[in-house]
């Protein structure tokens, strides 16, 4: 049988070894564009309410507590949804999992136009927030389409451009609202009509993912499983190897204080500038949009940095870069809570957003290597950790009037620094960790690590073949510096970079 041909160069798993941003070639770059656009639509829907909050709160008589609870609700629903999404990707594929969730949650966006009480406002924000779990399918999809040398970049650009929706909606919704109002609609009617725009966008993106995307370079899960080219995995095994890998839990914690902080800022930043500096609604929205729109370059930049340092320093370089960038983000967050002038606040906010979002990209430069068999679940755990961080941060610092927003932002910065420290404990026996190299007492190879997720019976059936290929393609995580050492790396007596 003639091997399939692809527009991009590929490795032995048919994953692309190059990332061509302006290409739409199927299946690799098409999957990239479908993933970020659909995730973008979900972000627009989830955070469509905050930029119109001064109008909505007057219409529905919302209290500060109502607003805080709704903000928490908008990100809490996706906690378990992200974990479930990860498992669904492992079992059914990212295309079907993503399209299904986007369609299931779109009615909540339409129903926002009909809400009439604080309770109904909380409920629509809660159910709309489930759509943020499409982040997991985005990262799983990119990790399935792109090889180790560029997977950090692919994950970061897809996630970052999707997150742009959190900033874009700060611009889109006030403009749509203003246009509808200027046409002749009453103020309290205009904001309701405006919600049909993100709702329709989200619905269309779901159909695009389903009809134009592919789960893997070689086709969709269902077809490959029927032909025997992809074995159907078992849920208990996927769950076991995901939840027992401590590296996934550490990344979930640290992601809670980069992406979780980003979600928190999306909920509070427009109101913060509106109230503190007595700005107009549109002006506050434009300033707030700068935080989310920084994702155009910041999160992708984190992915590029992760891949760049990995070429020389391997996985250890990825871990060090993540720790440094996220810690600096925490320091800038503290400064943001302490400055009192409008211009200084804007400058510090933009700098903070760059580091905070770059840390998100750096995190998902590490995630694809934690587990091959439970990639979706690890992605879901990490993504869910982001939502848990957002929920806890808003509960502790921004619910009600216990803290001023300035104090809450300062304390949030301190928490970022503290919760980034556990990265120091992440250790891969074949590559090492931040403070030590690979295991010296026992020969450790990529095959030892990834094939340990399969038992002898499964190996006899050949179910481990994909992990075997992935292990071979991930040797670059040793780094060029390690590969050029005079002494051989464990399990690699003739050190030479493996082309992938």
TrEMBL record:
Gene3D superfamilies: MFS general substrate transporter like domains
Pfam families recorded: MFS_1
Entries under SUPFAM superfamilies matching the protein: MFS general substrate transporter
Transmembrane parts of this sequence: 36-55, 67-84, 96-115, 122-141, 161-181, 193-213, 281-298, 319-339, 345-370, 377-397, 409-428
Taxonomic superkingdom: Eukaryota
Its membrane topology: Multi-pass membrane protein
Region (Disordered): 457-500
A GO biological process held by the record: nitrate assimilation
Keyword terms of this UniProt record: Membrane, Nitrate assimilation, Transmembrane, Transmembrane helix
GO (cellular component) term, any one: membrane
KW Oxidoreductase (keyword) present: no
GO molecular function terms attached to this record: nitrate transmembrane transporter activity
Cross-referenced InterPro entries: MFS, MFS_trans_sf, NO3_transporter
Family: Belongs to the major facilitator superfamily. Nitrate/nitrite porter (TC 2.A.1.8) family.
Protein name (record): Major facilitator superfamily (MFS) profile domain-containing protein
Protein species of origin: Turnera subulata
């Amino acid at each position: 049988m003639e091997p399939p041909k692809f527009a991009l160069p590929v490795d032995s798993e048919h994953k692309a070894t190059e990332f061509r941003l302006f290409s739409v070639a199927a299946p690799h770059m098409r999957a990239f564009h479908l993933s970020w656009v659909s995730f973008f639509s979900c972000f627009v829907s989830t955070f469509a309410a905050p930029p119109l909050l001064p109008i909505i709160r007057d219409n529905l008589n919302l209290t500060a507590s109502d607003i805080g609870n709704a903000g928490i609700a908008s990100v809490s629903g996706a906690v378990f949804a992200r974990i479930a999404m990860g498992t669904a990707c492992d079992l059914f594929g990212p295309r079907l999992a993503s399209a299904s969730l986007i369609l299931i949650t779109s009615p909540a966006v339409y129903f926002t136009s009909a809400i009439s009480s604080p309770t109904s406002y909380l409920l629509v924000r809660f159910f709309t927030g489930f759509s943020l779990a499409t982040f997991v399918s985005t990262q799983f999809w990119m990790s399935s389409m792109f090889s180790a040398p560029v997977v950090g970049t692919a994950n970061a650009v897809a996630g970052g451009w999707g997150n742009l929706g959190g900033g874009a909606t700060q611009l889109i919704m006030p403009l749509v609202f203003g246009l509808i109002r200027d046409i002749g609609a009453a103020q309290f009617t205009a904001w309701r009509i405006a919600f049909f725009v993100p709702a329709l966008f989200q619905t269309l993106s779901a159909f695009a993912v389903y009809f134009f995307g592919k789960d893997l370079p070689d086709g969709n899960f269902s077809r490959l499983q029927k032909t025997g080219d992809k074995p159907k995995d078992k849920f208990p095994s996927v769950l076991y190897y995901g939840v027992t890998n401590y590296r996934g839990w550490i990344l979930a914690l640290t992601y809670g204080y980069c992406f979780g902080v980003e979600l928190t800022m999306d909920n509070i930043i427009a109101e913060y500038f509106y109230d503190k500096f007595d700005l107009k609604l549109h002006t506050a929205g434009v300033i707030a949009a700068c935080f989310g729109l920084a994702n155009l370059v910041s999160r992708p930049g984190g992915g590029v940095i992760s891949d760049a340092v990995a070429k020389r320093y391997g996985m250890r370089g990825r871990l060090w870069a993540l720790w440094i960038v996220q810690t600096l983000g925490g320091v800038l967050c503290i400064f943001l809570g302490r400055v009192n002038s409008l211009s200084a606040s804007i400058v510090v906010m933009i700098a903070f957003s760059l580091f905070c979002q770059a840390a998100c990209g750096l995190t998902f430069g590490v995630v694809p290597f934690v587990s091959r068999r439970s990639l979706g679940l690890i992605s879901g755990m990490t993504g869910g950790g982001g939502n848990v961080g957002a929920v806890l941060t808003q509960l502790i610092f921004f619910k009600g009037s216990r803290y001023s927003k300035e104090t809450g932002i300062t304390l949030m910065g301190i928490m970022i620094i503290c919760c980034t420290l556990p990265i120091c404990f992440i250790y891969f026996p074949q590559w090492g960790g931040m403070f030590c190299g690979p295991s010296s007492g026992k020969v450790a190879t990529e095959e030892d690590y990834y094939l340990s997720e399969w038992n002898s019976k499964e190996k006899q059936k050949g179910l481990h073949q994909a992990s075997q290929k992935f292990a071979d393609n991930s040797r670059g995580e040793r780094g060029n510096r390690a590969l050029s050492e005079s002494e051989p790396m464990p399990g690699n007596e003739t050190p030479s970079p493996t082309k992938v």
